[in-house]
Amino acid sequence: MSKLRCAAILFDLDGVLVDSTGSVDRQWSAWAREQGIDEDSVIAIAHGVRSVEVIRAVAPHLDAQAEARRLENREASDRGIVVMPGAIDLIRSIPENKWGVVTSGARHLASARLKLAGVLFPKVMVTADDVINGKPHPEPYLKGAELLGVNPAECLVIEDAPAGIRAAHAGGMKAIGLTSTYPADALSEADWVVQTLGQIRVSLDGAGKIAVNVA
Question: Does 15 share its domain with 34?
Answer without folding.
Answer: no
